[in-house]
């Protein structure tokens, strides 16, 4: 959270408290809305914000660490979860105090102003800012070594912290500010991993997530004080707060809790890839005949379908991704069901390819306005990786800001890369919220490049 926004949040709390005169919406209407009432109605209304750890949509399915924990907590109470995704933390607090939600499932910063109006509950999460750099013997070990180094950051809290640190050190940090409308914070991290730049700054939580994509990152150098954050409920819901505290304490070491934490903060998100089977014999994989047979149904070169399978699963029909996608073509469970994969057959190679081709055909219809077939392939691949909604969001952004909505590179792809920036995923034309667009951008490039290589080497 930016410091300016934190100040605004405190002012908002003050205004809300003044308006409520020490009461909340439930008290004004004479209705209690604590744990017994929640259990009676059988529903827990949870407020959260789009983000890399809280909640996002991936390949058409809801994901996010806080979302999964909220699901587990609701299940422990024996009630259904109703999720309300709001625009920002100010709106989280406003809706909570107005009785529009029961619980904030988000790392809400612990501040003195908020302590007067909410009960913090659940696990206390400690965050701080870190230098993101590559591993190696030259990695910085203390902040004084930043003097003379070039650090690339977006304007806002990271830039402000670096400026203050530079003053504390007597100057010398070369701070390069990158406009948020050109590069996302996650793309800057990818630049570090790829060696394009040496240093950037992020929260340790965001850095941990990105390290699962780029194992060569070093994120151990902290440059700010710790900030505490946790879930929150209204002051009038002490029993709900107690239940959240008890659940976190008893379940922090449970298999479900550990599995969720591992999914987002530990599992390597990249599939290891080997070489193609045999150039001499003109074979790419053991499944070439499947690709040759089914690619005809969508008008694709079979080598393009093979390249998609390779990038998705490394031709491993038993592969299961961090997000739960399965099989040769890495279909999410709901997608597999929708396109005819029988239960228990997700890892059957032919069933996987058949369903994937049906899905691709549906995506081709979704992007019918993209008339150029080579361009359409890129949109289809992007949607296969991210889900249709995030691609249509990027198309809407591209059109809004004066670029083409039917050209991928430098147009729609540019805004796909920016979908992890709050300024863009909160734009009114975006309907699907946060998304890590760097992965989709790289995915499309890789599949296309690999297919071109296959065409050159295998006739």
From TrEMBL:
GO terms for cellular component: cell outer membrane. Belongs to the transglycosylase Slt family. Residues 1-26 form the signal peptide. This is Transglycosylase SLT domain protein. InterPro entries: Lysozyme-like_dom_sf (IPR023346), Solute-binding_3/MltF_N (IPR001638), Transglyc_AS (IPR000189), Transglycosylase_SLT_dom_1 (IPR008258). Residues 43-268 form the Solute-binding protein family 3/N-terminal domain. Coiled coil: none annotated. It is a peripheral membrane protein. It comes from the Bacteria. The keyword Membrane applies. Its main location: membrane. Pfam families: SBP_bac_3, SLT. One of its GO terms (biological process) is peptidoglycan metabolic process. SMART domains: PBPb. It is found in: Cell outer membrane. GO terms for molecular function: peptidoglycan lytic transglycosylase activity. Keywords: Cell outer membrane, Membrane, Signal.
């Amino acid at each position: 959270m930016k410091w300016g926004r934190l100040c605004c949040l405190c002012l908002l709390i003050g205004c809300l408290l003044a308006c409520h005169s020490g009461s909340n919406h439930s008290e004004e209407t004479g209705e209690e809305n604590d744990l017994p009432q929640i259990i009676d109605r059988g529903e827990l209304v949870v407020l959260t914000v789009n983000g890399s750890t809280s909640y996002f949509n991936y390949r058409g399915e809801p994901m996010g660490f806080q979302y999964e924990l909220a699901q587990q907590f609701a299940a422990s109470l024996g009630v259904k979860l109703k999720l309300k995704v709001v625009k920002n933390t100010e709106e989280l607090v406003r809706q909570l105090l107005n009785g529009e939600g029961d619980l904030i499932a988000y790392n809400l910063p612990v501040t003195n102003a908020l302590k007067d109006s909410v009960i913090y509950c659940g696990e206390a999460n400690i965050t701080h800012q870190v230098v993101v750099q590559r591993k190696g013997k030259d990695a910085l070990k203390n902040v004084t070594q930043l003097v003379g180094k070039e650090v690339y950051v977006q304007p806002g809290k990271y830039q402000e912290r670096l400026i203050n640190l530079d003053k504390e050190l007597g100057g010398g940090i070369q701070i390069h500010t990158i406009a948020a409308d050109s590069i996302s914070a996650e793309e800057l991290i990818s630049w570090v991993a790829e060696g394009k730049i040496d240093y950037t700054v992020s929260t340790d939580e965001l850095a941990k997530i990105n390290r699962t994509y780029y194992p060569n990152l070093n994120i151990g150098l902290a440059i700010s004080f710790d900030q505490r954050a946790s879930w929150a409920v209204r002051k009038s819901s002490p029993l709900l707060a107690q239940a959240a505290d008890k659940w976190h304490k008893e379940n922090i070491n449970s298999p479900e809790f550990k599995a969720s934490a591992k999914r987002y903060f530990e599992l390597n998100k990249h599939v290891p890839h080997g070489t193609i089977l045999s150039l001499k014999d003109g074979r790419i994989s053991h499944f070439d005949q499947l690709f040759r047979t089914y690619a005809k149904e969508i008008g694709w070169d079979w080598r393009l379908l093979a390249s998609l399978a390779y990038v998705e699963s490394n031709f491993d029909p038993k592969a299961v991704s961090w997000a739960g996608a399965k099989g040769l073509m890495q279909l999410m469970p709901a997608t597999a069901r929708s396109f005819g994969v029988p239960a228990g057959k997700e890892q059957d190679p032919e069933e996987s390819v058949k369903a994937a081709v049906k899905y691709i055909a549906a995506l081709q219809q979704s992007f019918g306005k993209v008339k150029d077939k080579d361009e359409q392939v890129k949109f289809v691949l992007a949607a296969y990786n991210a889900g249709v909604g995030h691609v249509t969001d990027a198309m809407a952004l591209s059109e809004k800001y004066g670029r083409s909505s039917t050209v991928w590179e430098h147009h729609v792809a540019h805004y796909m890369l920016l979908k992890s920036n709050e300024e863009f995923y909160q734009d009114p034309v975006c309907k699907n919220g946060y998304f890590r667009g760097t992965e989709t951008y790289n995915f499309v490039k890789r599949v296309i490049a690999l297919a071109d290589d296959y065409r050159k080497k295998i006739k």
